Each structure stands twice: as C-alpha cells, then as structure tokens.
Amino acid sequence: MPDYRIGRAAEAIGVRVETLRRWERDGKLTTVRTPGGQRMVPAAEVARLLAERRAARAQGGVSRRNAFPGVITKVTRDKVSSLVEIQAGPHRIVSLITREAADELGLKPGMEAVATVKATSVMVEVPR
Questions:
Q1: Is residue 64 scored above 70 in pLDDT?
Q2: CB under 8 Å, gap of 24 or more: what pairs does 101-105 form?
C-alpha cells in the first residue's frame, strides 16, 4: 500500500494536519520522511487510525478534553432554535441548537447531558 502525504492522510482520517503532527510528536502516529524531507504517513497507519476512530464512535467515545458532563439548568425554545444551559461543575455552558434537535432529545431542566465543545476561535476579554 502507498504512503500518504500528510495533508491527504489528515483528509482521509477526518482531522487537521496539525492534529497529525501533534500525534506524531506524542508518539501516537508513525511517519516516514522522503529523501527531500517530506513527511509521509504509511497506509497502515491511516488504516489503524480509521479503525480506532470507527471503534470509538461505535462505543460513543469522544475526546475527554472537550466533553463536559453536567445537568441541564434551562432550555429556552423559540420557533426555530433552542438555547440550552448546562451546569458542568463550576462552568455554565450555553449552546444554541435547533428547536428540532432539542425536541428530539427531549431536553428539559434536570436532565443529565454532556456538552461537547469544538471551537475554532476563542475570544479573550480583559476585566475593566
């Protein structure tokens, strides 16, 4: 089986190139270098990672760094969307989801829920 360029491997696995580089640094991924220094991911590694991710999804696994178990404290529904508040330890997490999703999940205060956070940017504010 052929090796993958790192960008193609990331695309096939469904992660960013930066994630593969971090996995390589952490020893979770083995790569090889071409004579020109280009990082290549062996096809066997791509297959292994895909299988691990598929198994984790089947078991409901997610990264623990971004999953916050808590209790729903408030659900505010309008015609199209719902605002869901979850108290996860000392943190109050607010999510805007579709009304349809909130109804399908039967969300209501007092229910246990897990807030899964995936953000591409974080804003920082300085106190006055």
A1: no
A2: 102/75, 102/77, 103/77
Amino acid at 82: S
Q: How far is CA 46 from CA 18, 29, 61, 96, 116, in A?
A: 15, 9, 19, 34, 25
Please indicate whether residue 14 or residue 18 has the higher confidence score (pLDDT): 18
Tell me phi and psi for residue 59, to 5 degrees.
-95, 5
56 versus 21: the higher-pLDDT residue is 21
CA atoms of 65 and 84, how far apart (whole Å): 21
Query: What is residue 26's three-state secondary structure?
Result: coil
pLDDT at res. 85: 95
Of 115 and 65, more confident = 115
- Using the structure block, give the residue that is written with the tokens 């590694």: 45
What is d(CA 21, CA 29) in angstroms, rounded to the nearest whole number? 8
* CA–CA separation, 30 and 61 (whole Å): 23
